[in-house]
Amino acid sequence: MSENSITTVVTKNDLKHAFKELNIKNNDVCFVHTAMRKFYYLPGGSQTIVSALKETLPNGTLMMPSQVSSNCDPATWEYPPVKENLIQLIRDSMPPYNPQTSQTEGLGITPEYFRTLPDVVRSSHPYLPVAIWGKNAHQIAKIQPLDLPYGVNSPLDYVYQHHGKTIFLGTDYETCTMLHYAESVINRKTEACSAATSIAENGKTIWTKYQNVDLDSYDDFNELGAAFEKEFPTEWQTLQLGSGIIKVINTRPLIDFAKKWFIKKDRKFGNTANQL
Predict the structure, then answer these.
(1) Alpha carbons 30 and 174: distance in angstroms, whole number
(2) What pLDDT score was predicted for residue 40?
(3) Are 171 and 36 in contact (CB under 8 A)?
(4) Burial per residue of 43-52, b for 16 or more beta-carbon CB atoms within 10 angstroms, e otherwise
(5) Are the beta carbons of 154 and 176 closer than 8 angstroms?
(6) Mean pLDDT over residues 14-42, rounded?
């Protein structure tokens, strides 16, 4: 048998059954992260994943991250960095954010597939938009703030306020966008950021400034997740499906735990706004 032979198959019905086993209700608010390759082989791929989620949540709300990671000041790029004499050329030439056409970057195939669907709404933030389907999608997308885009009144705030669930399909806490909500509501220092938002009459790109917290302060999301699971073993469930793992987490207790975790670190490292 070839090393690359298909030895397991996960179907849409398998996914739906797993979601039921993991206590996902038809009216839940769910924020989903995916690593489709972990479920090899999945006939239909992203289409199957999204269909299974939608059919599980007919009266609920489904969200996926939809960031445009290249839509930030090229002077801050590190992987790779930009030669100084090319920074302004990139700024002037960067296509501005368009909710309908700007590609989701760095998150895999499924979030990009999801955001292109005609019944999915994408929020307006030029760097950190969220793709949303289902109940109240248009209202949620409309009010995402420019400053602190993952904080109060953001789609992540909606998940928290409505006792939503975070779903990992083959991923782990390292990918957990919801933890950025905890970072955004604890009085952390902010920093100036910018993103391409429109085109001037001369054809050059206009960049808009906004404030955000440093979302990469500690690189400790998996450590945080392990500590949370140890302290709150009843607030999460996991199930193996084929060669992949599905994990469903009650978001509110996770965020409440994460806020305390980050506050402690921010105080230790002087990362709190107006810290004496």
Answers:
(1) 18
(2) 87
(3) no
(4) eeebebbbeb
(5) no
(6) 96
Report which DSSP code applies to 33: E
Q: Beta 29-34 vs 165-169: how paired, if at all?
A: parallel
Q: How far is CA 140 from the centre of its chain?
A: 15
CA 15, 60, 255, 270: dihedral to nearest 10 degrees? 110
Q: Where are the beta strands (DSSP E) in 23-101?
A: 29-34, 61-65
Q: Distance between CA atoms of 237 and 258, rounded to whole angstroms?
A: 18
Place of tokens 């999460």: 236
Helix (H, G, I), strand (E, B) or coil at 82: coil
The pLDDT value recorded for residue 5 is 85
- Please check whether residue 255 is in contact with residue 160, taking contact to mean a CB–CB distance below 8 angstroms: yes
Asked whether 80 and 147 are in contact (CB, 8 A), the reply is: no
CA dist 219 and 197 (Å) reads: 29
> Other C-beta atoms within 10 Å of 237: how many?
16
Which of 61, 271, 36, 63 lies closest to 178 in space, CA to CA? 63
Q: Using CA atoms, how far apart are residues 258 and 245, in angstroms rounded to an integer? A: 23
Instruction: Quote the tokens at residue 171.
Output: 């991923």
Neighbour count for residue 98 (Cβ, 10 Å): 12
Q: What is the pLDDT of residues 130-181, one digit of tens each?
A: 999 999 999 999 999 999 999 999 999 999 999 999 999 999 999 999 999 9
Q: Is the dihedral of CA 68, 72, 75, 77 positive or negative?
A: negative
